[in-house]
């Protein structure tokens, strides 16, 4: 390089540096600063931001950042901004905002390969609302009453195969019972009686295709996603055959499948086979994990808290004295003590640890400390039932299992307003299957409490944070002894 070239290079560098300095000066002094009061930002790596911490587990990140940053803060991942709203004081807008302001569709696109095209998050909001109406109609009280009879029958049949005494993995047993129950109530008699093993295996592949990485990369060509897609095709073929058979035989059953077949949109259009299949898959995913996980946690807590185990057994005796051996929708509805025990297990271990929305407009929130923040349009907005359900300013001694916190006079789940307890979400997107889940878990535990003495052999179970739907880690070994509960015991 000669002297002329060297000077030319140096001048170019100086010009570039000068341009950058001038640009920053203009930005600082001439262009007015944004008046938005943006939330604090979680520290992260260049470019990828907080990706590693998010994939490692959002709850661990929340535990570290909430004490430092408060209930509102932003996590950057690549070009995305995820703003967390933790606690009822700031999450009301999250639950109450219309879809035009905070949308589910964009953030739950990772469900589309599993549920299939043309349903739930693959359609615009107006169509999705009509499809949710189909769910609502399939879960009306008159339908739930018939489902309860099927739940009770399935529980009686399943536990009849247990001996007079023995040891079992309660987690395994409840998972299998609940998929049997869900198959009968939701997927139909044809699946329950003839195709259960095939459909169960296919749902297993679908389930294993729902990985944490699927949230960010739902179409990544990894083996789990390939098995998911193949299982989805086979399920579609099975349900197309069942739907066609029912229609040609003019056969009507008392299950959710039939409700979806009979459903019509407001313009009179009937549901298609593909839509029915997608809605059924969505229903099973929404209900199966929640019920099996919560049933297992409920049992583990009852066996480790004898005062509450005694209380639910005493409640069963009182109901038996009043109703005899009858177990139906109305009898289950009277089980307030068991309800509170299930609700407390669900507070401590909600299967869905994060709820997400996409912000289509700016909005503001005020924390319980009085700090005001402006959340910009374009942010992903998140809240966490798993974290919010253990906030000490709402729940007294929040890590302790205490079903009496919901009793009349305490009602801690309402202490800070409508969104103090959010295991089933809330507001306009609250879980439609909540009544179904409680009835199913009550039916199962009613049978167990009335027919067995149970003792937990394993250490109290740990949480499986690696699963998409957070559940119980490892086996939950239980010793059982058959007995017949009576009002005189």
From TrEMBL:
<keyword id="KW-0489">Methyltransferase</keyword>
<keyword id="KW-0752">Steroid biosynthesis</keyword>
<comment type="similarity">
    <text>Belongs to the cytochrome P450 family.</text>
</comment>
<keyword id="KW-0753">Steroid metabolism</keyword>
<keyword id="KW-0443">Lipid metabolism</keyword>
<keyword id="KW-0756">Sterol biosynthesis</keyword>
<feature type="binding site" description="axial binding residue">
    <location>
        <position position="431"/>
    </location>
    <ligand>
        <name>heme</name>
    </ligand>
</feature>
<dbReference type="GO" id="GO:0020037">
    <property type="term" value="F:heme binding"/>
</dbReference>
<keyword id="KW-0808">Transferase</keyword>
<keyword id="KW-0408">Iron</keyword>
<dbReference type="InterPro" id="IPR036396">
    <property type="entry name" value="Cyt_P450_sf"/>
</dbReference>
<dbReference type="GO" id="GO:0005506">
    <property type="term" value="F:iron ion binding"/>
</dbReference>
<dbReference type="InterPro" id="IPR001128">
    <property type="entry name" value="Cyt_P450"/>
</dbReference>
<keyword id="KW-1133">Transmembrane helix</keyword>
<feature type="transmembrane region" description="Helical">
    <location>
        <begin position="12"/>
        <end position="31"/>
    </location>
</feature>
<keyword id="KW-0812">Transmembrane</keyword>
<keyword id="KW-0503">Monooxygenase</keyword>
<dbReference type="Pfam" id="PF00067">
    <property type="entry name" value="p450"/>
</dbReference>
<dbReference type="GO" id="GO:0016126">
    <property type="term" value="P:sterol biosynthetic process"/>
</dbReference>
<dbReference type="GO" id="GO:0032259">
    <property type="term" value="P:methylation"/>
</dbReference>
<dbReference type="InterPro" id="IPR002403">
    <property type="entry name" value="Cyt_P450_E_grp-IV"/>
</dbReference>
<keyword id="KW-1207">Sterol metabolism</keyword>
<dbReference type="InterPro" id="IPR017972">
    <property type="entry name" value="Cyt_P450_CS"/>
</dbReference>
<keyword id="KW-0349">Heme</keyword>
<keyword id="KW-0479">Metal-binding</keyword>
<keyword id="KW-0444">Lipid biosynthesis</keyword>
<dbReference type="InterPro" id="IPR050529">
    <property type="entry name" value="CYP450_sterol_14alpha_dmase"/>
</dbReference>
<dbReference type="GO" id="GO:0008168">
    <property type="term" value="F:methyltransferase activity"/>
</dbReference>
<dbReference type="GO" id="GO:0016020">
    <property type="term" value="C:membrane"/>
</dbReference>
<dbReference type="GO" id="GO:0008398">
    <property type="term" value="F:sterol 14-demethylase activity"/>
</dbReference>
<keyword id="KW-0560">Oxidoreductase</keyword>
<protein>
    <recommendedName>
        <fullName>sterol 14alpha-demethylase</fullName>
        <ecNumber>1.14.14.154</ecNumber>
    </recommendedName>
</protein>
<keyword id="KW-0472">Membrane</keyword>
